[in-house]
Write a structure and sequence with these properties.
Shape: rod-shaped
CATH topology: Ybab, Chain: A
GO cellular component, one term: cytosol
Family: Belongs to the YbaB/EbfC family.
Protein name: Nucleoid-associated protein SAMN05192586_10143
Number of helices: 3
Function: Binds to DNA and alters its conformation. May be involved in regulation of gene expression, nucleoid organization and DNA protection.
InterPro entries: YbaB-like_sf (IPR036894), YbaB/EbfC (IPR004401)
Amino acid sequence: MRNMNDILRQAQVMQQKIAKLQQEMGDHSFEAASGGGMVKAEVSGKQELRRLTIDPKALEGGDVEMLQDLIVAAINEAGRIARESMEREMSAISGGIKLPGMF
C-alpha cells in the first residue's frame, strides 16, 4: 500500500508542476517571421496570437494573396515554436513520458 501512496503523491507533485508550467508558458511570447521579416507574428504559450506586425513594404506590391500567405506562415511558425517549447518543458517534468491530451 505504501508504494501506491508514493505513486499518488508523485502524481500530485507532477500535476502541480504541470499546472505551474502551463501558467508560466502562457505568459511567455514566441515570435516567428516570414517573407524575410516583412511579417512577424507573436503568440503566447497558449497558442493565442498577441501581435502581428506587417512591414509597409509588404503592401507595396499589392499582392494580397502573397501577404495572406506570409501572415499564415508567420502565425503557424510561431505556434509551432510555442508547441515545441512546451513539449520540451513537459518532457523534462514527466521524465520523457508522453502524457495523453497534454499537447
